[in-house]
Amino acid sequence: MSTATENSTSNVIDNRTWRYATKKFDASKKISEEDLDTLLEAIRLSASSYGLQPYEVLVVSDQKVKEQLRPASWDQYQIEDASQIIVFANKTNYGEELVDDFVSNVSKTRDIPMDGLKGYSDFMKSKLIDLPLETKSNWTARQAYIALGNTLQAAAELKIDTCPMEGFESDKYNEILGLNDRDLNAVVVLAVGYRSEEDATQHLPKVRKSKEELFTLI
Fold first, then answer.
1. Cβ(106)–Cβ(116) under 8 Å?
2. pLDDT per residue over 173-214, tens digit each?
3. Does this entry carry the keyword Flavoprotein (predicted)?
């Protein structure tokens, strides 16, 4: 194994070991515009089923809005102290426009005539459009979680601290952020910023299942 490969492998593990669910952020430290742009680009490049990205991402920096969101977040102070709150909102319903917009983007980006994409478009629609409403919502929520996972790892590479949060009231988030009229639902929240020196959690060993418990090699 080359030295470069060894270093790359070490960085992969070190970054994931360094990351933890930050319980107390340093409210005086803000993410630079450059790092935030990098983090958002990493989110944009996240994988999703068919590449459809059936969700939207809201980035909340406004302190007054964060103060509104805190009571709807089980009063967790990360909401106010973090540099930004990233809200992943999945589409609760969709029609053919979800596929049509994507196919149009493919056509423009790859310079492929729309006629050449009709078969692919029809295939996606046959698998997605007639699903029950609950199934649609569950599927789009899973896609949002893929983006969340990618964000956690990108942030760790940038040495930006994170706390993924499901402890919040979606209906109140939807109301505060104006999501109800857009067929969107706040499904998971990610607080991002920098850990406080007072956060004792950062010094605790990471608790995970052993390889023997977690993996089955076939």
1. no
2. 999 999 999 999 999 999 999 999 999 999 999 999 999 999
3. yes
